[in-house]
Structures are given as structure tokens and as C-alpha cells.
Inverse folding.
């Protein structure tokens, strides 16, 4: 097996193991999913199963990223809706927190399209403002956003 393949396999194992993290060192259990279009990888999305005080302030439950060549094509919105729909079916949590840099207009629009309601804008440790959004999974934010 090539070194690149071994490295990739180790990385995938690390992502799968993260789902069973024990919370030590501030690392909470996290489920990772890849966003693909046909056979092509276009990004990833992650769901943190619960929030530590630090994640409640500035990290949130869900994070995502889309490669630059695939941005603006709806991949992030699609993935965020899929994760939120899955969590809503499970019935927990009742709502999820997402954050994005205040200057990241595309991410803010994605979150808002998926029912995100802006709670506030805070300043991070780096001195940059960031937005905090909640999506109400139990109260119909997703259905309202779909209209």
C-alpha cells in the first residue's frame, strides 16, 4: 500500500473514531460526512453531538466547507438540510447552533436559507466578528425555510 493510501486510510479512521470521542480535552463526539457530486468530492460537513462552553460561544454544532471550484452551486445548503433533516427525524437536539465569520456572506446566506435565525454577532479571540445562528429543528424552521 502506498504511503498516500496509508495516510488517507488513517485519516478516515480518525474521522470515524471521532463519532465515539469521550469528551476528554474538549473533544466532543462528532459525525463527519463528505459532500459528493457524482464521483467527485466537493466538501464535508460535521455535526458535533453536544456543545462545550467554548463551542457554545464560537464553534457551534455544525461546520461545513466546500472546495472553491464547487462553491455557489448549492452543495453546502443541500448538505446542511440533509444533516438538519436527519437530526429532526431523530428528535434531538431540538435546535442547532452554527457560526460563521461576519464577512462570510455566502455562509451566512446558506445558514439563513436553511432556517437559521441570527442570535448575535460576537468578537472572537482573533478580534474578528462572527455570527451565531440557531436552527430550530423541532419548531419548523426547516419547513419555513423550504417555502
Amino acid at each position: 500500500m502506498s504511503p498516500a493510501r496509508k495516510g488517507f486510510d488513517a485519516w478516515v479512521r480518525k474521522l470515524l473514531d471521532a463519532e465515539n470521542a469521550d469528551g476528554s480535552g474538549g473533544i466532543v463526539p462528532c459525525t463527519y460526512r463528505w459532500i459528493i457530486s457524482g464521483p467527485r468530492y466537493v466538501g464535508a460537513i460535521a455535526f458535533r453531538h453536544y456543545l462545550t462552553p467554548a463551542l457554545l460561544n464560537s464553534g457551534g454544532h455544525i461546520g461545513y466547507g466546500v472546495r472553491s471550484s464547487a462553491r455557489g452551486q448549492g452543495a453546502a445548503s443541500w448538505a446542511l438540510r440533509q444533516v438538519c433533516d436527519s437530526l429532526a427525524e431523530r428528535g434531538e437536539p431540538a435546535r442547532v447552533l452554527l457560526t460563521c465569520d461576519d464577512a462570510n456572506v455566502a455562509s451566512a446566506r446558506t445558514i439563513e436559507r436553511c432556517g437559521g435565525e441570527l442570535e448575535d454577532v460576537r468578537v472572537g479571540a482573533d478580534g474578528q466578528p462572527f455570527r451565531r445562528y440557531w436552527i430550530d429543528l423541532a419548531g419548523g424552521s426547516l419547513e419555513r425555510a423550504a417555502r
Summary: Helices lie at 3-17, 53-59, 75-90, 105-113, 141-146. The chain is about 35% helix and 30% strand. The first helix runs from residue 3 to 17.
